[in-house]
Each structure stands twice: as structure tokens, then as C-alpha cells.
Amino acid sequence: MTSELINVSITRLSHSEGLPLPSYATQGAAGFDFLAAVQETICIQPGERVLVPTGLCIALPPGYELQIRPRSGLALKHGITLPNTPGTIDEDYRGELKIIVMNAGNEEFCIERGTRIAQGVLAPVVRLQWHEVANLDETARGKGGFGSTGQ
Ligand SMILES: O=c1ccn([C@H]2C[C@H](O)[C@@H](COP(=O)(O)OP(=O)(O)OP(=O)(O)O)O2)c(=O)[nH]1
Ligand SMILES: [Mg+2]
């Protein structure tokens, strides 16, 4: 990938010792894979969700967020998803990164230590400032939405 690399400070908690840092699986991958820093294998029953530790804390540079997204292979093969996707890591968060993993499949799914459970994508943030007005400008769409343009 030709995009610039942004430095992000990272610290480890004791339960991630021995695991490699999250990394990009291919040269052009947009997301790096988070490894589950579980001490023992945890199994999620269909419909259940668990909070998976990463054992990592980071300090994002100002103006960035980290999005935590599901992995499509786990979603397709096992129905593993993240109910809050994309999870938002704020630039001022210094706690442990954790991943809310849900089993939307039909069978038990087990997460072993080091399972690549989700991916992180660094993204720039644009913040707004409200400008309260009496009326909004008119558009062709107007208030039409929720299927107003047809199938
Ligand atoms: O999948 C996630 C989502 C969030 N976080 C952490 C980092 C984030 O900066 C913080 C707060 O997340 P969010 O704003 O989504 O949750 P909230 O329910 O609004 O909590 P808060 O009141 O702490 O902002 O929790 C995670 O570790 N994993
Ligand atoms: Mg919040």
C-alpha cells in the first residue's frame, strides 16, 4: 500500500504478553487483525455475546478514530459479528481495547488465545459545529426517504 503510515503509541497489559502486535495480513489490507488475548478458550453459544480482551491500550493522534470491524470470513462461516460495528475507539481513550463479539450463527463458536477475532481501521475524523437556523434549504428529495425512490 502506498498510503502514509501514522505512528500510534501502544502499550501492553500482562495478558497480551507473548502475542504479536496486531498486523496487516497483506500489503494492501485496510485493516489490521486484533488477536484475542484470552487466557483460556472461550466458547460463545448462538445468540450470546462476550467481551474479548486485546490486552492493548493505545493513544491515537489528534483527529483520528480507530474503527473495529468484523472479519468477513468469520461472519460468513460462523455468523460471528460485532453488534456495535463499527466500534469506535476515541482518540482520548486510554483503556484496554475490547471487542464485543456476538455469535449470530447456529453453532457454538470457540475463541482461542491468539484468534484473529476482528480488524481495526484507522480513520480521520471530521467534527462539526452546529449552526442553528430557522429553515433549511429546499431540495428535490425534501423529506422523502426510507425507500421513497423505489426498490
Ligand atoms: O468496540 C469497542 C467500542 C468502544 N471501546 C472503548 C473505546 C471507546 O473510546 C470507548 C467508548 O466507546 P463508545 O463511545 O462507543 O461507548 P459509550 O457507550 O458511548 O461509552 P462512553 O460513555 O464511555 O463514551 O470504549 C472499545 O474498547 N471497544
Ligand atoms: Mg461514547
Automatic annotation (TrEMBL):
InterPro entries given in the database record: dUTPase, dUTPase-like, dUTPase-like_sf, dUTPase_trimeric
The enzyme's E.C. designation: 3.6.1.23
Essential cofactor(s): Mg(2+)
Keywords: Hydrolase, Magnesium, Metal-binding, Nucleotide metabolism
GO terms for MF: dUTP diphosphatase activity; magnesium ion binding
Keyword Magnesium: yes
Gene3D superfamilies registered for this protein in UniProt: 2.70.40.10
Catalysis: reaction(s): dUTP + H2O = dUMP + diphosphate + H(+)
Pfam families noted in UniProt: dUTPase (PF00692)
Database matches in CDD domains: trimeric_dUTPase
SUPFAM superfamilies linked: dUTPase-like
Catalytic EC class: hydrolase
Binding site for substrate: R71, S72, G73, N84, T88, I89, D90
Residue ranges occupied by any dUTPase-like domain in the UniProt entry: 20-150
The protein's annotated pathway: Pyrimidine metabolism; dUMP biosynthesis; dUMP from dCTP (dUTP route): step 2/2
Family designation: Belongs to the dUTPase family.
Main function: This enzyme is involved in nucleotide metabolism: it produces dUMP, the immediate precursor of thymidine nucleotides and it decreases the intracellular concentration of dUTP so that uracil cannot be incorporated into DNA.
Protein name: Deoxyuridine 5'-triphosphate nucleotidohydrolase
Source organism: Neokomagataea tanensis
Gene giving rise to this polypeptide: dut
